[in-house]
Design goal:
- The chain contains six helices and ten strands.
- It has helices at 3-15, 39-42, 45-59, 75-87, 131-142, 160-166, and strands at residues 16-18, 24-25, 31-32, 34-36, 66-70, 93-97, 110-112, 119-127, 146-155, 171-176.
- A hairpin with a 5-residue loop joins strand 2 and strand 3 (31-32).
- The chain has a single domain, classed as Rossmann fold (3-Layer(aba) Sandwich), CATH 3.40.50.2020.
């Protein structure tokens, strides 16, 4: 099965919403004529399986200890990669970066079985300006994790790649939004 092509079809069928006027408010606050609701795919068994396989194939030769990112967009992605990696007898742990440190208990901002020195990839569903990805990378770096790169399912091509590279990270988008729109 060509996982990339299957994922592209799922995004077109289930996740891409297009309007004539800018009606979709993005996390950056900007209004857009299109929206990618990738949770319709990342939280779907078939979508998770496809994404897990795609990203596992992208990262396996770099021997990461873990994949994760800012909750909630990264959570199902990191779990899918972790499950596929386990099935391939090459376990990669998932981790979650909270938006704020936990207000009770241990006060952790990163949840999961990661430790200082671990090699990790930050994962994200959609990158626009890369604010969420870079926040997760900053927290991970402060925790002593070694970031191998940032992976996104879709790059909206609105400055995120440049922002990521300006912070010194490699960027690996599976798709550019121009593959879906006539940009």
């Amino acid at each position: 099965m060509d996982y990339r092509e299957k994922l592209k079809q799922l995004i077109k069928q289930k996740a891409l919403k297009v309007a004539d006027k800018p009606i979709f408010k993005l996390s950056s606050g900007k209004l857009s004529t299109y929206y990618l609701d990738l949770r319709t795919i990342t939280l779907d068994p078939e979508g998770g399986y496809i994404i897990g396989n795609l990203i596992y194939e992208m990262v396996k030769d770099k021997n990461p200890d873990a994949v994760g990112g800012l909750t909630l967009g990264a959570d199902p992605i990191s779990y899918a990669v972790s499950m596929v990696s386990y099935l391939n007898k090459n376990p990669i742990k998932p981790f979650v970066v909270r938006k704020q440190p936990k207000g009770h208990g241990t006060g952790k901002q990163i949840e999961g079985n990661v430790k200082e020195g671990d090699k990790v990839f930050i994962v994200e569903d959609v990158v626009t300006t890369a604010g969420s990805s870079l926040k997760a990378a900053k927290v991970a770096k402060e925790a002593g994790l070694n970031i191998l790169g940032i992976i996104a399912i879709v790059d909206r091509e609105e400055g995120g790649e440049e922002n990521i590279k300006n912070e010194g990270f490699d960027f690996y988008p599976i798709f550019k939004v121009s593959e879906f729109l006539n940009k």
